[in-house]
Amino acid sequence: MDADLRSQVEGIFQSTLADTHGLLERESCVEFLKSIGGTPQEANALLRDSREESHISVKDFLDILCGPEAKKEPAEEPAKPETAEEKPAAQAEEKPKEQAAAQEVVEDAPSGEAPPEEKPEDGKMDPLSVTETTAADDQEESSATLAPLDVRTCDACNCKEELTQDPTDLAWYCESCWISYYGAPPSDGGFPFLQCNRLVKVKEGKIWQEMDLLSAWNAHPIPKWPPRMPPCGPVSESSDPTHIGDAWVPVQVHVNPGLVGQWARQCTREYRPHPGEVLCKRYKIEHAVGAGHFTRAYLATDMETNTKVCVKRHSGLTVELMTDLLTISRRISSVDPEGKFFSRLIEAFYDMVGYTVETLFEGRNCMEICRMDARHFKDLTNLRLVAIGCCRGLALLSEAGVVHCDMKADNFMWTKNSEGETVVRLVDFGCSRLDSRLENGRNWAFAEGGAGHIGKWAPEMMLRLPITDKADVWGSGVALLELYSGRNMWNEEEDTVEYMLAQALGLVNSKAGLPEKLLRKSPLDIRQLYTPSPAYFPVQRLGSAPHVRFKDRSFETNDEVGRWVKLALLFVGPCSSVCLVCLVRLVW
């Protein structure tokens, strides 16, 4: 990797992956190595010799990827072009001089090359042998210099046109393939793919002063806003559509006589569990298989049943959160008793931190597949399998009264069933909550978690309205569009709720912004979040008091997006009830 490319990649890591200290989490490094084709064993082996265990500096990680000698390239590079360029130039001038016998360019040739040219004229050496040797050397050095340009082709279509390297996967693409993927030609100024890669392009609009925005709202208020908040009632029988009833579930706690105190536990649990360790006297850890914001997943062997299971280590898993996981698990098991569609929660225990053990679905998540092969879900047959799997899973969750709340491609597992057929299953219910229609006025707040990924939030989630299974239908529809188009709603940490909502409005081509009936139900202060009548678009707050301004965000009309939405409706066709809900969601 040359110095310029390395600095560009380093800049991307610093801005998108690294923390404020320029450090990368070890898990994110492992995930990156796996995404470029490495196995978990190879990734852990590469990172084993790093100086830090939990975090790695960006420079150290690039040294692991490119080798430590990459740091010396910028210092050595200026000296190389002198000899590498002058020598082929001199030889190119010697060759026509021997053939034409006299050329004025002799004066430009280096003085060290003159003696070999004079020898054939003096008759001291066979002119033919000198000519053949010079031509052979010339050809070798010329091929060594031009080989990368001659051999390199577009990694997508294998053409030999002018290529551009994509810093996201370090592959080379021609302009037509670049436009096909990003929707715009490559540019030398920074990395515009972050903007081009949005599912819907967001544009900036009018700048509002705070008083101007409030005055406009006062001139055109929304009747019956703010709404009355419904009273919270006690839990009733209607809150349990599965009729499974309450239960007492035993949870084991490991008591170690050598550990007392928070600091002692912190030092001991830092690098656990490690391969070969046995947890709860039953589960032997093999290796890590994935990581999220709050969990780390490991492949393990259940020594009692001699089967493979998935052990998840949870960060900050309180008794209340574990109770939620157990409640969701019991609801799901009631509608999927054989575990055909969802993984089953086998056990939960504490060993300095909270652990859960689930049945294992062997396969890969759809996001990983898309990173390995961007064209996999361009095949509508493959995309339809994802849609069918999501619809079947959501239909069962609706029966259980559970909202997944994190419908993204990372949680769609591409697996095989008992008959060997490819099926897609939903996993990771750490953000799941109950359908608000069963809560008797007790709607959960984002402050307690359960929000899932911001890029898949339905509009009602952004308005803090009661959450139903329609939010999951929206999330699955967005995930399908992202898999098919290769674009994403959310691209970087700077992407805000306003950006997500502007894209959501673009997906349904709502040129008037949010419907007034939705804003009327929102408990938020809509006067500082959205533009006033006649069009309700999100506004982003700029600056701080007393110099507060607001910039409205809207979307650029794109006929291609409309085609994607129609495809999403086509894909959910196998489940008519979900298709109807999706259609209502998309047109409000």
UniProtKB/TrEMBL annotation:
Residues 71-144 are annotated as: Disordered. PROSITE patterns: PROTEIN_KINASE_DOM. Keywords: ATP-binding, Kinase, Nucleotide-binding, Serine/threonine-protein kinase, Transferase. Pfam families: Pkinase (PF00069). InterPro entries: Kinase-like_dom_sf, Prot_kinase_dom, Ser_Thr_dual-spec_kinase. Residues 283-555 form the Protein kinase domain. Gene3D superfamilies: Phosphorylase Kinase, domain 1, Transferase(Phosphotransferase) domain 1. Transmembrane segments: none annotated. GO terms for molecular function: ATP binding; protein serine/threonine kinase activity. Residues 71-98, 116-125 have a biased composition (Basic and acidic residues). The keyword Ubl conjugation does not apply. This is Protein kinase domain-containing protein. It comes from Effrenium voratum.
